[in-house]
Amino acid sequence: MRSILALRTVVLLSFFSTSVLCHDLDENSIHSRVIAQGNNQFALKLLQFLGSESHQNVNLFFSPTSLSLALGMVFLGARGESAAQISESFNWSSLEREKVYSALNVLLQTVTSHEHEQFELELANRVWGHQALRLEKAFVNEMREFYDTEITLRDFKQDPEGVRSEVNQWVHQRTNGKIKDFLAPGVFNSDTQLALVNAIYFKGLWKYEFSNKNTFLAPFYAFGSQDNEEVVEMMSQTAKLNYFFDETHSCRVLELPYSGNDVSMLLFLPEELDGLAKLEMSLTVENLKRWTSMLTNTTVSVMLPKFKLNKEINLKTVLPELGIHDIFDSSQANLTSISETDGLFVSHAIHKAHVEVNERGTEAAAATGFVMRKRSLDMNEMFHVDHPFIFLIRHHPSKSILFVGKVLESRSMKEQTNTRGQSSDEL
User: Fold this and answer.
1) b vs e for 349-363, b when ≥16 Cβ sit within 10 Å of the residue's Cβ?
2) What sign has the CA pseudo-torsion 53, 291, 391, 379?
3) Each residue of 201-258: pLDDT tens digit?
4) How much is the pLDDT for 346?
5) CA-to-CA distance for 98 and 95, rounded, in angstroms?
């Protein structure tokens, strides 16, 4: 059986109101690299923030690409300090506004343009507006030009639940049925003016597949402690893979490519059981570049647990900590390029993501046993994931981090980690 990775993420931003030439293409390509680098920096900054003391004991998964495209839609309509905060947080400030729009469009096109049948990678944007909202013509045209989306007008005042149902149905469809009931009842009400939604879906087969015959039960030391031993289904294989061990930061880096080679998973495993927090702080853009440049193709013995994560993040509480706060404040938000309606601001910002790494159609493990932490006597490098780790999903043509995740433990979370009281994390 082939191992399969399926990912789905969605971002919602809802608004309330209290009342080309070849030269241009080359230039846009350069600017899109600037955008990608800024997005990657934001991704690692968000990972570090969510790995801080107040968030450190939860599994994590999100899509920085989805986040940047959704906030890019807001950036189209933001002005003044509201726009500056978004631009500075993503390091877009070196580009003129129009260049940011074009570069985001190039990024969108690059990510979704592929000729491989072995994986699916789709990005979609959709905007719902209240039928009485006086939208700026330039905003409508720019959404069409740069995001390839029209604005669907609905009556939020009379039927907010009907619009919510329509949004949920669209999200369900664009994520291949994996994200259900995206919006909880009550997110929309009679004051809702606009909803911006971005969805990303990826499904890929490993280039070097795992065999279900080599899957077995093994220990996983949750939260980096031998006192929290859990039993998981561990996939295993030995293959020629890109690998690097950094003695300075005491971590191992492994790249698992997907069929087609456009996308790969990077795994970061601290040498020590409890070394994840230290590794998170060292995972900077500079170190990421250095580690990936040092990867060497060699024979590696890999053990990787199957895992599934469903994660919802309330961006309204997270983004202000990263410098984006005016858009959530009815007295400070400047979204006048969307509409001249007084007091337009972002009332809800929700990011929901799903990832599953498994062996398609696999039943129970074919062998039962426990694997101890011990070096092999042969010359193969060892990458045995039996304690917390970080993973990134990278899109090589655009140099973008599509997804970021962290696995700390295998059992479903006992405490509520999102605004709706639904959190499911399991290996």
Assistant:
1) bbbbbbbbbbbeebe
2) negative
3) 877 888 888 988 999 999 999 988 888 999 999 999 999 999 999 999 999 999 999 8
4) 85
5) 8
How many Å apart are CA 313 and CA 405, to the nearest integer?
13
Query: How far is 155 from 188, CA to CA, in rounded Å?
Result: 11
Residue 107, number of CB atoms within 10 A of its CB:
27
Give the integer Cα–Cα distance in Å for 243 and 252: 8
Query: Tokens 């700390």, residue?
Result: 408
Do residues 209 and 223 lie in contact, with contact meaning Cβ atoms separated by under 8 Å?
no
**Integer angstrom CA distances of residue 285 from 38, 88, 257, 262, 264:** 10, 16, 20, 20, 17
Instruction: Report how far apart, in Å, the C-alpha atoms of 53 and of each of 43, 57, 293 are.
Output: 18, 8, 31
Instruction: Measure CA 170 to chain center.
Output: 19
* Sign of the CA dihedral with 121 first, then 63, 421, and 305 last: positive
Can you give the pTM of this predicted structure?
A: 0.85
Looking at this protein, which amino acid is placed at residue 178?
Answer: K
Residue 409 structure tokens:
């433990």
d(CA 323, CA 227): 38
Residue 185, pLDDT above cutoff 50: yes
